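INFO  loader      accepted 1 record
INFO  loader      residues=260
INFO  predictor   begin
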Amino acid sequence: MVNEANVKQAAAEKQLKEAQGKIDVLQAEVTALKTLVLTSTPSSPNRQLHPQLQPSGARGAYKHVGGHVRNKSASGIFTSSPGKHEPSSVAKEDREMDSVLFAEFLMWREHPSFDRSSAFLRRIYREDIGPCLSFTRSELSQLVQSAVENNSLTIEPVAMSALPMVKASAVECGGPKKCALSGVSRLCRHRIKLGDKGSYYYISPSSRARITAVCNFFTYIRYIQQGLVRHNAEQMFWEVMSFRREMTVAKLGFYLTDLG
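INFO  predictor   done
INFO  writer      dumping tokens
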């Protein structure tokens, strides 16, 4: 009886620790979302949210915030290979607004919704969202996209020592060393849960970056729809373009990693 009580106590302590970890993740996510909406603009970006703007020596301090959002643009990860000649001056990024894209955005902004019939969203689904969420396992990819659209997808870090606690087979859900979406053998430090389903799916860092890039886009346009973004049309447009670039970069296989 004493042994059984000890086993139950250990299990309860483990569940409590996992629950506290999830609470910390949610609190950090809320803080990050508030910071995104209130402090980050194209003309005055928040450097904590845009690690590519940090000096090269400071990027090592950047940490991802847990949850299914807050992977900002990965454009800052492009570095020259060792041995290659470094130019004496660094080119400054410039930009020029595409009038067609801006017109489509303005039309959507008049009545913001998630209706794919708008030229604005139809283009982004075709050029960014679809390719970014197209994985080897197409059926699971569609489920992931639906969960992202419905804001019901959860991403959480997993302890490498923990055993997979899933109801589906290991082939379907992957494992700590195999991505369920791509099928690639990689160390999977995160897993996803779709809605209220009991199964978890282990995902690689690259798959996580692709999913969070799409989540970041949906989070921002959802804030626009709810009237929470205090930016003018041009600022909103460039924020949307930055999220589109983030999806493109993630699709190509580039992503930031935690160095801690």
